[in-house]
Every structure is written in structure tokens, then in C-alpha cells.
Write a structure and sequence with these properties.
Two copies of one chain form a homodimer. Chain A is α/β, with parallel strands linked by helices. Chain A folds into two domains: 123 residues, ATPase, nucleotide binding domain (Nucleotidyltransferase, domain 5); 148 residues, 2-Layer Sandwich (Nucleotidyltransferase, domain 5), CATH 3.30.420. In chain A, 36% of the residues lie in helices and 19% in strands. In chain A, the strands form three sheets. A five-stranded mixed beta sheet of chain A has the order 3-2-1-4-8. In chain A, strands 11-10-9-12-13 form a five-stranded mixed beta sheet, sandwiched between helices. In chain A, strands 5-6-7 form a three-stranded antiparallel beta sheet, with helices on one face. In chain A, a hairpin with a 3-residue loop joins β5 and β6. The longest helix of chain A has 25 residues. The first copy, chain A, is globular. Chains A, B: InterPro entries: ATPase_NBD, ROK.
């Protein structure tokens, strides 16, 4: 069996493993991300993880390594990461003495690619058109005129932070300079809560896992959810404000880009219907003259980033296209 | 000289004329849009305008008619228009007894096409990348990696209402069902001013020409501008809130889609630097970790819609591609 090694570097945890062409993960392993120890410590920890996974096992070496990191990323550099304090870290810093190709990519965009490749039933644009109802009787026509064969999806992993993979007409969209998808920092509450990015009222300041935990004074978003389900008043308030902030962001995204679906991933999406049911209701309530897109949890869950790192690795294998 | 006829149906005025392949407008004419007289009256007025322009002059008939209307539009139907109360008006209703092809299209999207075809210097994505500065030293690399040869622009005509033409990678983007670009109704002020669309806090409820006039209790946006420049306190307040609402919308658009430029058109854009200078400052102030895109006025001004209608017409001429 041939495989690549893959690592998804998150704000709290690094996930690693071997990924086959069909997206199956073997030898899954988690390591803590030593974020508190500074920029170089995180680079060193990633580099050590890469070196360990690139080593031969039973005489077989992975064909390549795919490495997904947050921030602004090019194939040659981790240009900028607020989470880790990175500035212009060259890809080679993560790949000392590794004799196979190491491919660097953006965590959320890679996860979006995995969602496209492995995530299953993204509904067709024709379905989306038919789903518009009410008094717009020919919206099916509109879908036939504009939407045939396209796939227009926002993939929104909610982890320690929030970014989005903007999938338009079946492909990831990067924008003029590669900065598209910063939905975590759109001002959903002008003048609202201060965000670590330097702005106020950002989506991430209400709805990221980091914000949920900090606003409740607990260690993680799971604990906020547990307290909310147990009836804790502060947790209910924080959870409700997160849902409203997400609904505002998705209202804006829907009106601007008319997606067929929004796919929520990342650790916070594991709350399931405790998140999705009130979010769907709030989004529908805010849209007065059009239907809401489908809002669902990622079928890949928190492993989408690792599977996306695998796709990065497969694309770096000489002669391989990266998709099975 | 061969030409097509073109009509741009606005909320207040219909503009019509003949358009040559290079976008030159001849025999320009304005007629009032009889919006207050109901849906059928507007259809009848448009139909009469089409018939008049399609008539031969000096023995020469236009090769086709391009007709740009607001709302949700397919090539066969004006599916929905809140402004006119239209539901499923077939294109044929506008083209009774006209012996040349009549092409129906969306006003803002057509204006965006005209901006792309005739609007001149949309900056290259490479320029945009180099314009990112500060501590992100390799952002030029990012532009080279992601942005080469693309044109990523928001074209934002501000007239009686507000919609946007979302230009991504050099092409207009319609979304899954043809509803993309509804930037006029994104919730920039959650819970804010009631909008005619049924939502609250929409961009258009603060910054459209209609809202500017209504909030000042005057007849038109020009009068609001005049009073603002004359030092009227209420006009200054309304103008300032419009600028802030636009800055919020453009902050969100920039973070989501990373455009190289935002091109403001429509009647309100004729305010020039009285609008653009404070808008640029407010947008820059709201973006903490990235530069703002270029914000400029459309070089086509309020004629972009008519030139776009001309492109619709040229595309309907048998054997023509629609661009010179």
C-alpha cells in the first residue's frame, strides 16, 4: 500500500497520520501545539512531527508529506500567522533532512478541498433553485439559467479560530491576493467585543472555540456546551450570542454569494444540533426575501484538515494528480 | 454605421439610446419610469420605449435591443422585482411586434459587464499584492502565487437602491441560483433601521439614494449632498451614517473576497470625493490586519447600465460575440 504523510497544525493540537489515495487515514496521532512557547517552538515541533512521519515503517516510506497550517500561506512560505506569530517561515524550515517532497498549504483551504473530494452530497445548484419557493415561481428557471453543474459552498471550520473556504463554481476562491475567506473577522457587531485581530465585533470574537471558552471563563468550548446543556445562564447567553453572530455572518454570505450550502466543520461543529438547529432558525429569520441555504455539519468532522493535508501530499508526489 | 438599441430601466428614470460596438452612445434619451402607476404601467412604458427605438431611422434599424432591468432576471423572464412589483414577466411582454432580437438582462450585472469591457484600468492582482505592505513582507509572493492575471472587483452602483456586480477572476459571479450580489441587504447594523425588503439594518436602508432622501425628508440624494455641503446638521448625520454603513459593507466584502478594487457607480457616486474620501478613511480604519482595496468612482458613471444593455444587445445579434 502506498501512502503520504499528512499533518494538520491547529491552534491547540497537531493531527498527523498516513493517508491513502482514497482519503483513508492510518496511524492517526495527536500532539499538542506548543503555541505558548513562541513561534520557533511551534516550527520545531512541526518539523519533528514531519521528520517522524517521513521515516520508513516496515521498509516503506511515505511518498510525500502534506502540511496544512493556518494564516496566509503560499506553496513556499508560511507568510503570516497571527496564532503562532509566524512571519515568512520558509517551507524548508518544516522539512529539514526529509528525503521526500513536503507540500505546504493553508489549513482551511485544504480542509475545503477535502470536503469537495471526500465530503459527499453537496447538493446540486438545481436543487437549490427548486428550494427557493414562495412567490418566486420561476426560481427553478433561474437555477437552470445560472446554476447548472456548479457547486457553490461555504466550508466553515470553527476551531480555536474561524476562517472559511469559499467554494465557487466547484473551486476554492483565493481573491486578488490570496486573502479571501477571512469570514472570522467580518464585523457582525459593529463596535462590539474586542477581537485579538485588533478589530471589534468580529464573528470570531463571539463564535470561535477560543472566544466561547474565554467569554465563559472555562478551558474549552466543550465545557461551554456542557454548561449550556446543563442550564447554566452565562453559558446560555454566550452560546446564544455565538449562534446570533454566526447567523449574521451567514445572512451576509448568503446575500452576497448565494451558496447552495454551508458546511460547518471543526471542533465546535461537534455540538451538532445544539448549534445547527438554532443557527438554521436564526438564519431563516434574518432572510426576509429569499430562502436560506442548507446548513449542515461536515461529514468529515475535525479530520477534514488532515485529509486536506493528505491531498496536498498526494499532489506533491511526482507524476500524481492528487485525486483518486 | 451599425448599432443596437439599449434601454436601462432604473427606479426613477429609463435611459435609452443606440450603442455601437465600441460602446459609444448615440441619440441618448431619458424617460420617467412610471413606478407609482403599478407593475403593468412600467411594463407598458418599457415596451413603448423598445418599440420606438426599434423603428428604422434613415432606413436603418438597430440590429437588436438590449434591455437591462432590476431584480431577479433570466434571459426569458423578469422573475421578480421588488421595485416594480414584477412577478414572472416574460421577455416577450417588453417586445411586442419588434422584428429584431430583444435580449433581457440584469441591470447591475450588465453595468458590471460594461465596466469590465469599457471601464479602463482595473488594477492587476499583482499590483494589489504589492500594495499590501506593513509587516507582511512576502504578500507580493502571495499575489504571484494566487493572483496572476485575475481581475477581482466589486462594482457597486448606488442609485435608488443598491446591488452589486461581483466580479471574480474576471467574470461576473451569479451564485448557485442567480441571487448573488445582494449587498444592499446585508445586515450592517443588526436590529437597525427598517428596510423596504422586510429586514432591518440593511446597507440600502442607510446608503441608497432612496434612503438618503427619505431620512432627510427631501426629494433626492442630490439635495441631501447639497445640504450636507452647506453645513446642515441632519444632512451631515445622514451622510455620515451612509458612509459608515458603506464602510462596514466593504470591510466585510474585502475580508470575504479580497477584491483588488471597489468601483462605485450610480447617481450617488456623482458626489465624488465627498463620498469617496471619508469612505476610504472609514474602510481603512476598520481593517486592522490588511490593507484596503482601491476604492474609486466608475469612469462610466450613471451610463454603465446603458452601455451594459448595449452589450446585451450586441450579444443577441446573430453571429456576434458582443464585444468589439
Amino acid at each position: 500500500m502506498s501512502y503520504v504523510a499528512a499533518i494538520d497544525v491547529g491552534g491547540t493540537t497537531m493531527k498527523g497520520g498516513f493517508v491513502t489515495r482514497d482519503g483513508t487515514i492510518h496511524a492517526f496521532e495527536r500532539r499538542p501545539t506548543p503555541r505558548a512557547d513562541g513561534p520557533s517552538a511551534v516550527v520545531a515541533a512541526v518539523s519533528a512531527f514531519v521528520a517522524d512521519l517521513a521515516r520508513p515503517r516496515d521498509g516503506v516510506r511515505p511518498l510525500a508529506v502534506g502540511l496544512a497550517v493556518p494564516g496566509l500561506v503560499t506553496p513556499t512560505h508560511a507568510v503570516f500567522s497571527a496564532a503562532f506569530g509566524w512571519r515568512d517561515v520558509p517551507a524548508s524550515a518544516f522539512a529539514a533532512d526529509v528525503p521526500v517532497p513536503v507540500a505546504l498549504g493553508h489549513d482551511v483551504r485544504s480542509a475545503g478541498e477535502a470536503e469537495l473530494a471526500y465530503g459527499g452530497d453537496v447538493r446540486s445548484a438545481g436543487d437549490a433553485g427548486l428550494a427557493y419557493g414562495g412567490d418566486v415561481r420561476s426560481a427553478g428557471d433561474a437555477a437552470l439559467a445560472y446554476g447548472d453543474g456548479r457547486r457553490d459552498v461555504l466550508y466553515l471550520p470553527i476551531g480555536t479560530g474561524i476562517a472559511g473556504a469559499v467554494v465557487l463554481s466547484g473551486a476554492l476562491y483565493g481573491g486578488a491576493g490570496g486573502w479571501a475567506g477571512q469570514i472570522g473577522h467580518i464585523p457582525v457587531r459593529p463596535g462590539g467585543v474586542a477581537c485579538g485581530c485588533g478589530q471589534r465585533g468580529c464573528l470570531a470574537a463571539y463564535a470561535s472555540g477560543g472566544a466561547l471558552a474565554a467569554r465563559c471563563g472555562v478551558d474549552g468550548a466543550e465545557e461551554v456546551l456542557r454548561r449550556f446543556l446543563d442550564g447554566d445562564a452565562r453559558a446560555a447567553e454566550v452560546w446564544g450570542e455565538a449562534v446570533e453572530a454566526l447567523a449574521l455572518a451567514l445572512t451576509t454570505y448568503t446575500l452576497l454569494l448565494d451558496p447552495a450550502a454551508v458546511v460547518i466543520g471543526g471542533g465546535v461543529s461537534q455540538a451538532g444540533e445544539a448549534l445547527l438547529a438554532p443557527l438554521r432558525a436564526a438564519l431563516t429569520g434574518r432572510l426576509a426575501f429569499r430562502r436560506a441555504p442548507e446548513v449542515r455539519a461536515s461529514s468529515l468532522g475535525a479530520l477534514a484538515g488532515l485529509m486536506g493535508a493528505g491531498l496536498l501530499g498526494w499532489r506533491a508526489v511526482p507524476g500524481a494528480s492528487g485525486r483518486s
